Please model this.
Amino acid sequence: MYESHYGFSAKPFQLKPDPRFFFGSKGHKRAMAYLEYGISQGEGFIVITGEVGAGKTTLMRNLFCELESENILAAQIVNTHVGSDDILRLVASAFGVEYENASKATLLTRLEQFLKQCDQQGKRALLVVDEAQNLTPRAVEELRMLSNFQTADKSLLQTFLLGQPEFRRTLLSDDMQQLLQRVIASYHLGPLDLAETQSYIEHRLHTVGWKNDPSIDAGAFAAIYNYSGGIPRKINSLCDRLFLMGYLEELHAFGEAEVNQVIADIRQEFQLPAKDADQGNNVLNARDSSNTSLENIDDRMAKMERSILSVIDALKKMLPPTRINQYSEKDN
Model:
């Protein structure tokens, strides 16, 4: 919706991971270095942890884009709320190995044969397990056992484990020592700082052809950082709403006030109903503390009304006249 209004070639703040928008912060560059080092070693486990929305999956997809696909066969598992037997079935399914009605012994045999075929074809098998914090200790142990598949001089499978910070506690538990000994690299992906948050936003905007319309001042960047804590997914979510508001209200400059207005809207949407008068008063006080005057509200509503009318006019041009008449009759 707002893409065409601001002349963007695509939506800059989508939530799904997209390697086109990969931003190399200090932390992401270091994490990429660990991943590339792990790939060069061709064995063992590499562990990347980070908060929800820190960019772990985007990091991996960017790595996949840089890999020589003809030499590396990569498979990914994202559903990790499974038991130890099911994790093997998921691995088999991810690599395209038949697993229906197969016993554990048969499944392991098929996986080993598949990995040996990959090696004979000059390919390396890479398994990526996302949301690793959800794995049970027995499921993690099954993944460790798969690393035992090897030829005389090399491992047949390498595994990357991506998870939230609590996964590090799982790794450091007493029954994970054998796996921990096979971890050749580990890195925790932290949030962006203020300067990186601004660079991240500008990078995504420049990727879709931003020409400083709308402009964004330092106060806006600071407000975005304070709300998001430097977590890329939260930055994307807030900025998407900010640009939508800019489109609806015909704005071409964003400052701290505009960002705070969007933040207030988001918080109000997710606010629980007041349970007593005190909670209700707190809500009213929060609203009263806003710097938005009645005149500004009227102005915003007028702009939104004009934007809605422009959308309706565009729809009238797209739809056949008979359908427009039908809608008009219903409205009457």
Remarks:
- The first strand starts at residue 45 and ends at 50.
